[in-house]
Amino acid sequence: MLIDVLYAFAVVVAVGLLFGILLALITHFFGIEEDETAKKIREVLPGINCGACGFKGCNDYAEAMAQGKAKPNLCIPGAEAVAKQLGEIMGVEVEEPKDFVAFVHCNGTCEAAPAKADYQGIATCKAANQTYGGPKLCAYGCLGCGDCASVCVSDAICITDGIAHINTARCVGCGMCVKTCPKHIISMIPQEAATVVYCSSHDKGADARKACKNACIACRKCEKLCPCDAIKVIDNCAVIDYEKCTGCGACAEGCPTGCLKKVFFPDLPEDFSWN
Amino acid sequence: MEGFKSLVVILLSSVLVNNYVLARFLGICPFLGVSKKLDQAAGMGISVTAVMLLATLVTWPIQHFILDPFELGYLQTIVFILVIASLVQMLEVILKKFSPALHRGLGVYLPLITTNCAVLGVAINNITDGYNFVESLVSSLGCGLGFLLAMVLFSGMRSRIDETEVPKNFRGVAITLIAASFLSLAFMGLAEIVNNLIG
Fold it and tell me: Which of A13, A18, A19, A131 to substitute to test the interface with B, most B CBs within 10 Å?
């Protein structure tokens, strides 16, 4: 009787010991030590895994930085405060990160841009875009189903009058909406940008006009008006080079359709709510 | 030849008929938890397969050369749990070294394999079904592949569900469970297929 108990005891202890030793050996030979710097960096990063830094997520960025493969000023949502802390951890001087905000290049409101069909399907831009490019006559315009708003980490996007608007005061510049928009009409622009193009249509002037009253008709008036050569009409749509733009607003004043605007979106207070 | 045929039957039936997730309802937590993305689902499936094989490789000899001679069959559960837990720990260390991305992706589910009923179930079922060593290995490979198959199929279904407009009350866990039940239903239809194919 007692011997049975002893056997049982011995077997369990022996098996446990054997596997314990094996485990210790494997950890000894294969184990890797957690990088302390990467761990610290990860704690400082916002942890929203937005990917604006160009890495897969905060973890990847932290590891790349710990190995010296990435600069500490790439975290856009974290902005200056995070960059400074990261600089301290890494022991390097940090260049100030540029502040970028997302902007929707479309002003095809319900009134300006007529619909070509009545869309009754799944209420996402992705699905609408797969159905003959969406219900709007303009093939380039905002579909207004709010895919960008649903991925926005800072609740900065609202859909009003059929198009998406981005609250620049709230936008953290992560660029999630830029990646999500199936029409590719959201882009990152410098926060201090004074003039913006409210259109993405690459249709020729007459066609663009037919599809939307507010469209860029590629008349090239802005090119001529711009004193600093910052606007170019590329592929039937005006594009501003923010490296050159001084924000004088000459283009916005002369634009016949009003797709160039000087003040684009009011800076709403931080605690503003759309509901 | 006869032996080979029975191995094929064991392999196919453990993949299709006695699928651990969809017919025996073991290992449901990783099936629901990690099946959201195909790559993670496949990673989990492969690691479970690896752990099942490893576990059988070790538990079968333990049962037949240690527990049976000493008549300690009642220690089966506790010894197997001990063995499987340490095997998973080893797998975790090795994965962390050679595939950190997969390691992070699996997250909490890798330690969960430790207490995964599917893994313990395979180890114990192999003994109770009276398989010899080779048959046990084939059966656990089949069970692992069956788990992988279920994970991959279900991750496909879930990505489809993500694209569709689910009625509000069914969103989230509810529709996931409903989809899982349909997949299980489909697998129940395969019950006789292996016998008819080979028998």
Answer: A19
Euclidean distance between CA atoms B150 and B10, whole angstroms = 18
In a domain, A57, yes or no: yes
3-state secondary structure of A186: strand
Are residues A213 and A240 located together in one domain of the fold? yes
Same domain flag for A186 and A120: yes
Domain boundary among A90, A117, A135: A90
Six-digit token string for B148 = 């992988």
A21 occurs within a structural domain: no
**Alpha-carbon torsion A186, A191, A196, A198, what sign?**
positive
Ramachandran assignment for A79, one of left (phi > 0), alpha (psi -120 to 50 degrees), beta (any other) = left
Same-domain check for residues A72 and A129: no
pLDDT: is A265 or B198 the higher one?
B198
CB contacts under 8 A, A 108-147 vs B, are: 122-123, 126-127
Within a domain: A167: yes
**Which residues neighbour B38 within 8 Å (Cβ) at sequence distance 6 or greater?**
B152, B155, B156, B159
Please give the model's pTM, rounded to 2 decimal places: 0.59
CATH of the domain at A114: 3.30.70.20
Residue labelled with tokens 């660029």:
A175
Tallying the residues shown for chain B, one arrives at: 199
Closest Cβ–Cβ partner in B79, B94, B163 for A15: B79
Model confidence pLDDT, tens digit, residues B83-97: 888 888 888 888 788
Q: Which of A58, A90, A122 is the last residue of a domain?
A: A90
Residues of chain A in contact with residue B166, where contact means CB-CB under 8 angstroms, are none
Average confidence (pLDDT) over A237-242? 87
Can you tell me the ipTM of this complex?
0.71
A50 and A160 part of one domain? no
Q: Beta partners for A164?
A: A159
Q: How many structural domains comprise chain A?
A: 2
Closest by CA position to A72, among listed A37, A101, A103, A104: A37
